[in-house]
Amino acid sequence: MSATRAYLFAHPAKHSLSPAMHNAALHALGIDARYEAREVSPKILGSALEGLRTSGAWGANLSIPHKEHALEWLDHVDDAARAIGAVNTVVVRDAALHGFNTDGLGFMRSLEQAGLMSVAGLEVLLLGAGGAARGVGYALRAAGARVAIWNRTYARAVQLAAELELEAVSDANLQSKVRAAQLLVNTTAVGLEDTRSSPLPDGLLPDDGWVCDIVYRPLETKLLRDAAQAGLQTIDGLGMLVHQGALALEKWLGAQGIAGKPDASVMRAAALERLGKA
Predict the structure, then answer these.
(1) N or C: which end of the chain has fewer CB within 10 A?
(2) Looking at residue 271, what is its pLDDT?
(3) Distance CA 261, CA 241 (A)
(4) In whole angstroms, what is the distance from residue 16 CA to residue 158 CA?
(5) Beta pairing partners, 97
(6) What is the DSSP letter of 72?
(7) 134 close to 102: Cβ distance less than 8 angstroms
């Protein structure tokens, strides 16, 4: 049996598409290795990360709720992940733990794949202020977008906006900001496993432009369904998942000196099959 070389640490972990994606990519590259999801509660995150040092593993992906809390356990964190304040990829190199964030670049690649080739100068509204919003907001701002952020708890929006030099949006200003947004991105969990809920009130959508939801189960959330019916361009959340995963695998292989670049189309097909949509 192939040795496990990379992990997903998440809580919960059992419904993750990451093992299907990564194992398909490894198989396509002819690499005898395996990716495995592990249920890791916040209480044991530190010991799980420490265990990577001598396990022979290449590293791990981090998902909810670990992205922001892992930094204290790592030996090195790259500048982007430090600025974002969240890590989703840990690379083991000479028993040292190196932290990166591939969420932002993965998100940007998903936009390009959908046909949105540049966000420079666009009015963007992010919904949510969690770990995913950090990566997405950082990447959008770095690409020249004008980014505002709304969160159900306004204080969290204010805090993240201050850290990433974004604009915080209050409930009082939400409607006008949504209407004016040229790209609206839901980074909250509203709509996850639920086709009836949207992070926005019924009828409130941008007047024109793009709507993206990083939720990928279901692939078409209520937000995206409403946006499509209103004639807006939509982008599902699977693209970000696939591309951030491909970037993480690229980092692990590079650190091991293994040639080969993960095929994002192979990873997406595997994820779709796992979702039952193929």
Answers:
(1) N
(2) 97
(3) 17
(4) 31
(5) 92
(6) G
(7) no
Q: What domains does the chain contain, in order, with CATH numbers?
A: 4-101+240-275 (3.40.50.10860), 104-236 (3.40.50.720)
d(CA 11, CA 64) in angstroms, rounded, equals: 6
Report how far residue 62's alpha carbon sits from residue 217's, in angstroms, rounded to the nearest whole number: 18
CA angle 241–245–248, rounded 5-degree value: 145
Of the candidates 38, 49, 48, the residue with the CA atom closest to the CA atom of residue 12 = 38
Q: Of 14, 43, 67, 222, which is the active-site residue?
A: 67
67 a catalytic residue: yes
Query: What share of the chain in percent tops pLDDT 90?
Result: 90
DSSP-based three-state secondary structure for 215:
coil
Region of 31 on the Ramachandran plot (φ > 0 left; ψ -120 to 50 alpha; else beta): beta
Query: What pLDDT digit, counting tens, does each position of 77-126 carry?
Result: 999 999 999 999 999 999 999 999 999 999 999 999 999 999 999 999 99
CB-CB contact of 57 with 4 (8 Å): yes
d(CA 220, CA 235): 9
Burial of 191 (0-12, 13-18, 19+ CB in 10 A): buried
Q: What is the DSSP string of 5-50?
A: EEEEEESS-TT-SHHHHHHHHHHHHT---EEEEEE--GGGHHHHHH
